Fold this sequence. Notes:
3 domains, six-stranded mixed sheet
Amino acid sequence: MHADDFGFGTQIRKSPYFDATVRWGAQGFSVYNHMYIPRDFGDPEQNFWNLVNDAILCDVAVERQVEITGPDAARFVQLLTPRDLSKMAVGQCKYILITNAQGGILNDPILLRLAENHFWISLADSDILLWAQGVAVHSGLDVTITEPDVSPLQLQGPKSGLIMQDLFGPEIADLRYYWLREMDLDGIPLIVSRTGWSSELGYEIYLRDSTHGDALWERIMAAGLPHGLKPGHTSSIRRIEGGMLSYHADADIHTNPYELGLGRLVNLDIEADFIGKAALAQIHAEGPKRQQIGLVLDCAPLSGPNTRFWPITQNGVQVGKVTSAVYSPRLQKNIALAMVDTEAAVLGAQVEVTTNSGVVGAQVVERPFYDPKKTIAAA
C-alpha cells in the first residue's frame, strides 16, 4: 500500500513517521488531535503479544505538546491542574488532569518539566493549546504558549530497555520511571522519558526536529530487530487490562476525577486557586454520583473493541454504560471499563449489558484487571 492511499484531506496532519509506518505495514489509521494515527498493523491480538513478550514501536506523534515558557510558567501550569506540582523537579514527569470550572476533565496528559520555566503538556485527544492560550489571556501571568515541533514515538514492552541500551548506551538503564532526559542520537535532538500508554516497561522518545522522522524510525527499528521489535499500535487490550483511560471514551468534559477514582490527583488544600477548585471541593464533600468500575462480560470472545457505548441495566433499570470493552487473550475473558451510578458500583454485583449481539450478563470486578500495582511499568 502506498502512503497516498490514505486520505482524509490536508486538514488532517501527517506525522513525521507517517511514510515509515506505511512502509512497515500500517494498514489503517484513525484521527487523533487532528492527525493520522496508525491503528492497524494486521492482527491486534498479535500486536498485544508482541507488546507483552518483546517490544513494539508506535507512532504517537498525535500526542501533541503544549509548550509553556516564561517567568510565570510554573505558576501558570499549576492553574491548569488540581494536582500539587510544588515538589515537581526539573527532569520529572507527572500524570495530571486538566479540569474546567465545573471540575470536568478536559484532558489527562503527561506533564514534563524540561527546565525551571519550561514545561510540555503531552496531550491526550483534545485541544488544550487553545484552552491554555485562552486561560493565559486574562491570567496576568507572563507566559508564552505554543505547539513546538515535537513528535513522540513509544517504544514499549519488556525488551524496550535492552533496545534503548543498544541505542543510547548502558547509562540509559538508570532513567527512573516518570523521569526524562535530554538525549542526542546520531545528531537527532531528543527528549527521552520512562513513560508510555501500555502498562508495560517502556519509553517515549520525543523528536525535536520533524525532518529527522524517517531516519529516527529506521534507526530504532534496526536496533530493535535482534530483540524482536515489531512496528505496532497502542494496544486497546493492554491498556484496558491496565485500566488506562482513553479520553472521549472513559472520560470527557462531563466526567470528574472522583468518578474515576482519581482523587489522588486532586489536592484541594494547596494555596493555588486552580481552575475547578471550588467545584471539585463540593463534589468531594458530597461524593460522586457515578463511579468507574471494571466488568467481566459473560459471552463469547468479543471480536474487537466496542465502537459505541453499551447500556448497562440492573433489574430492568439503566444504571450506566460500558465505555471500553475488549477480549483479553491472556486473561481469556471479556473485560470492560464502565461508568455506573454509585449505588450500582458494588464488587460482585451482577448487571446486564446490551452489546452489539444482544444482552449478556456481567459481573462488577476490581480494576485494573492485570498488574494492579503497575510493578511491570515501574520496574
